[in-house]
Specification:
The chain has two domains: 4-245, P-loop containing nucleotide triphosphate hydrolases (Rossmann fold), CATH 3.40.50.300; 246-353, no CATH class. It contains eleven helices and twelve strands. It has helices at 68-75, 107-116, 135-145, 150-163, 180-191, 210-227, 238-241, 262-267, 272-279, 286-291, 324-328, and strands at residues 17-30, 40-53, 57-61, 83-91, 97-101, 117-120, 198-202, 230-235, 247-252, 255-261, 334-337, 340-342. An eight-stranded mixed β-sheet has the order 6-7-8-3-9-10-12-11, with helices on both faces. The protein has a four-stranded antiparallel β-sheet with strand order 2-1-4-5. The structure holds adenosine-5'-triphosphate, iron/sulfur cluster and magnesium ion (MG). Residues 68-69, 202 line the site of magnesium ion. Iron/sulfur cluster (SF4) binds at residues 271-272, 311, 313-314, 317, 319-320, 323, 326, 331, 344-346.
Length: 353
């Protein structure tokens, strides 16, 4: 439980907003220049803002290197953002809401916050010792953050494994004995050990076969429903966010270019980059699939070390590549239709079949 002194009631957030990110910026200073001096600045996250509602899932989608994980790591204060606000709201025991400013939180407050916010990675065991049993890191978390006895920790570990559809005996086995899907279930169990209410899921199913992906996504949905969890779900593939995310934000080179409900994004995308991403998502009807034409983007994603002027997408945009305004003026993210935000000088609702 976060102490009262960590709470900073602002009343600025709507009562349904669990997490609010405002103008988040992260610039990395990279070396390797002349005589080992500073080479430049990587504009990894360039002013990202979004809200996530209690018990809902926000999707963050975009190509590799567009700043998804950096956004998530700043939100959790695993790295320090260059600027911006991240506010987490919680219901207070005395009633009403309190807002915690994550970026301003001190060490003690952060320790409390870490219990409430957890992250699940693509391979949850990549950073762990392969000679440790599956139950060991869960037990370790419980021993650091709770005063449960050894027996109670073992019982809690068993309960957590059961919660994610695993046999509690898995706790005494080793990560290599499990399939990718099972390892991801165990990763989710570990993330849930301290009963958080906000989870970042950073490409949790990207390494799994499609059929296994569906099982893990179903599990995440069930857990959200049963435990009232709020998720930030990161993926590079739009097909994955379709069924799990209530809203989706599309990122390109450190910026959100379009954000709306996932249903709207799929039925009436308005940004040319979203059109291109959606044209690559397969549809189940084979007849329709044969009629589709894929929008191929020219070239690679430019380097965030030296992002393009004006609209960052103009070097690859089929609509704006010859337009002066796209090269010179950055389009702001505007709410064109209630709940539908687009950053483009020439937005156009287009069905992408
Ligand atoms: N510690 C760092 N120092 C310098 N640059 C970094 C650092 N971490 C990330 N970057 C750069 O910031 C940009 C955004 O990286 P990030 O990992 O957030 O992208 P991503 O969208 O999560 O990509 P992926 O889909 O590959 O995981 C990239 O250009 C990356 O090279
Ligand atoms: S502002 Fe111009 S370059 Fe950018 S997405 Fe819109 S049309 Fe394309
Ligand atoms: Mg990433």
């Amino acid at each position: 439980m976060v102490e009262d002194r960590a709470l900073e009631p602002r009343g600025a957030l709507g009562s349904d907003v669990a997490l609010s990110v405002k103008d988040l910026v992260k610039t990395f200073h990279v070396g390797g220049g002349f005589l080992g001096g500073e080479k430049g600045e990587v504009s990894a996250v360039a002013g990202v803002s979004f809200d996530i509602k209690f018990g809902e899932t926000m999707g963050l989608v975009g190509e590799s290197g567009c700043g998804k994980s950096t956004t998530a790591r700043c939100i959790l204060r695993l790295i320090e953002p260059t600027s911006g606000d991240v506010l987490l709201q919680q219901t207070l025991e005395e009633g009403g809401y309190g807002t915690i400013d994550i970026i301003a939180a001190d060490k003690k407050q952060l320790r409390d916050l870490r219990r409430r916010m957890q992250i699940v990675f693509q391979d949850p065991f990549a950073s762990l010792n392969p000679r440790m049993t599956v139950g060991a890191p869960i037990g370790e978390l419980l021993s650091v953050h709770t005063d449960l006895s050894r027996e109670e920790r073992a019982a809690r570990t068993g309960d957590l494994l059961r919660l994610v559809g695993m046999n509690p005996s898995a706790a005494d086995r080793y990560p290599h004995e499990f399939s990718g899907g099972q390892r991801q279930r165990i990763g989710v169990a570990r993330a849930l050990a301290l009963s958080p209410d906000f989870l970042v899921l950073d490409e949790p199913v990207s390494a799994l076969d499609v059929s296994i992906q569906a099982q893990v996504l179903n599990l995440l949905e069930e857990l959200q429903h049963d435990l009232g969890l709020t998720y930030l779900f990161i993926a590079h593939d739009l097909a994955v966010v379709r069924h799990i995310c209530h809203e989706t934000a599309v990122m390109y080179l450190g910026k959100i270019v379009e954000m709306t409900t996932t249903d709207r994004l799929f039925s009436e995308p308005m940004h040319p980059y979203s059109h291109a991403l959606l044209s690559a998502v397969p549809v189940p009807d084979p007849k329709l699939e044969r009629q589709r034409s894929r929008i191929l983007l020219e070239g690679d994603v430019p380097s965030p070390l030296n992002p393009p002027s004006g609209c960052r997408f103009h070097t690859r945009c089929p609509v704006g590549k010859d337009k002066e305004i796209c090269r010179t003026e950055e389009p702001p993210l505007r709410e064109l239709i209630p709940g539908h935000h687009v950053a483009c000088h020439f937005p156009e609702a287009r069905q992408v079949i």
